[in-house]
Amino acid sequence: MTNSLRIWAVLGLLTLSWACAQRHSSDGTQQASLLPVIDTTGSDLDAAQAQEFIAAHPNAVILDVRTPDEFRAGHIRQATNINLYDSHFANQLATLDRGKTYVVHCAAGLPNGRSRKAIALMDSLGFKQTHHLNGGFSAWQQAGQPVVKQP
């Protein structure tokens, strides 16, 4: 299967998962939700673990999947920004080195958030070493980890 066909297949599956996802309200009833339920194979790291992991793996790529405006407002040092909402996101991911190790994060690092969607796509594209920053950039900041801001 060619890369672009594989990308379209994954995007189709993600779209279907959005349509079929359900959530539970506080009273225990199920409600329709537009958030997909995604399970990934990447390991989860809290902010302190991520900082230690990045220090121990200087060649790891920190992949920030937030918008460019969010990225400019503050990001992890040496992070690469690829906006999940960009129409070329899947194609941009496909150009990355699948042999490298990635720490992926978004703003909140929720179970069905942008970073989880990115990791699911990366897994389908053959990336073998993906790690998720639980709590995302918000948790990173709250833990007092270093942040770079662009003017």
SS class: alpha/beta
Share of helix, binned: 25-40%
The profile of the biggest β sheet is: 5 strands, parallel
Examine the coordinates and then state which fold CATH places here, giving the name of the CATH topology: Oxidized Rhodanese, domain 1
Summed over residues and divided by their number, the pLDDT gives a mean of: 81
How many E strands? 7
| Unreliable residue stretches | 12-41
CATH-scheme architecture: 3-Layer(aba) Sandwich
Distance between the termini: 43 Å
Number of domains: 1
Structural overview:
This protein has 151 residues and is of the alpha/beta class. It has one domain: Oxidized Rhodanese, domain 1 (3-Layer(aba) Sandwich), CATH 3.40.250.10. Helices cover 38% and strands 17% of the residues. The protein contains six helices and seven strands. A five-stranded parallel beta sheet has the order 3-7-6-4-5. A two-stranded antiparallel sheet has the order 1-2. Strand 4, helix 3 and strand 5 form a beta-alpha-beta unit. The radius of gyration is 16 Å and the shape is globular. Mean pLDDT is 81; it is low at 12-41.
List the helices and strands and how they pair.
Blueprint: H1 3-20, E1 22-24, E2 30-32, E3 43-45, H2 47-56, E4 61-64, H3 68-73, E5 79-81, H4 89-94, E6 101-105, H5 114-124, E7 129-133, H6 136-142
Parallel strand pairs: 3-7, 4-5, 4-6, 6-7
Antiparallel strand pairs: 1-2
